[in-house]
Write a structure and sequence with these properties.
This protein has three domains: 177 residues, Growth Hormone, Chain: A, CATH 1.20.1250.20; 55 residues; 209 residues, MFS general substrate transporter like domains (Growth Hormone, Chain: A). It is 80% helix and 0% strand.
Amino acid sequence: MTMTAVALRPRASSGTSLVLLTISLGVLIAQVDTSVVNLAVKEIGASLNAGVTALQWIVDAYNLVYASLLLTAGTLADLYGRRRIFALGIALFTVGSLVCGLAPNAAVLVTGRAVAGLGAALEIPTSLAILTVAYPDTKQRTQALGLWASCNGLAFIVGPTLGGVLVESVGWRSIFLLIIPLCVAALALTVTAVPESKDPNGRRLDLPGQALAVVALGALSLAVIEGPRWGWGSIGSIAAFVCSITSAILFVLRQRGADGALVPLEMFRNRVFSASLGIAAAMTFGMYAMLFLTPLYLQAGRGDSALLAGVELLPMSVTFVIVAQLSGKIAIAYGPRLPMTLGMAMMGAGLFLLALLPLDNSLLLVEAALLVIGCGLGLNTAPVNAVAVANVTAARSGTASGLVNTARMVGATLGVAVLGAIFAMFAGGSGDAKHIIAGLPPAFIGGGIVEMIGAAVALRFIRRGSLHPAKR
């Protein structure tokens, strides 16, 4: 029996608590998966005879599908039922994990990661809509959303260590296979504990716009990742770039004239909103590339085990979670420009520190850089989301939140593609420690420059009152 949003009542505390448990479990599974894979790239490369380019696709296949379909997922949930789409997301994530765990080669593994990314794209934004319906009381909803958000921080802490333990003790396939029972449990809870709800009024799918977005981002990733191998002047590289640019232009034209556009372009007339999206993309551009390259350096460059590499990444994760709890108070007290500018600048400084590894190949330098990056990430993450939502009308708040997450994932996808390609150009294909260390500085410097550009954008466009604009 389908239930509408108004059919739910806050008095059903045991039922809504079970809904929160279900949603949190589903989100935790998806978020942990994204972080454990980085610890396994060295073992995956050795096991499947995969080079840096293949490893980039293993990471970016997930990011690419997730980023491309994030906005459409919310519309699908409103049209066809939030529980149904959330359950479908978990099911696809389960299938993708199974394909990854049994993959005989890199191509199948990339396919499995893409399917898992599709599942996460359906699952994570829909989880927020389910919580909003399940907790109509503002105070209860705020507490529920706080727990939901803490799952992201918990995944950030647990993921690297868990990945290291599994890779070292059981093997890299275990990071995909051992998550399947949890997926099945989350799916069973979804079917039995989560009430159905939908709100199709005024919503419609923009399939042409969605297709153009996928082609634009996919072709750009293809060009950047395969460019070093194909040659930047090759027909394949040029064709991919042209396809990406053409699709992007057609996407903008489509959004300008479409009824029920995927991305309402009028929102970008607000410079603060547009700046916040650019900052979100710049943040993850350097961040995700660093999470791809640093474990590779720790294991292949230093010879550390996967478990030790996971432990060595903990200072960044723990610092991020601690500072993130304070960033909201700082933004309220001093305005969002301070934490956003300082946070982006600290992330850039941390990447510049990592670029010094050929001169000072010490673990102390790595840990110092990770602490600085974690602090910067914690300062910026909450304010950038809050500023984006605050600078649109209340009716567009959900769209604004979706666009911020899309910007983050687009930045992540391009960061791994571009900085990974730069690393591959300078490191070559030998895979020995000397060449790996040689490839790191240009990649980290590139990431640091983008972070500093983000800091400059925050300093220029974000104001003290950006959390409470006079006109909405």
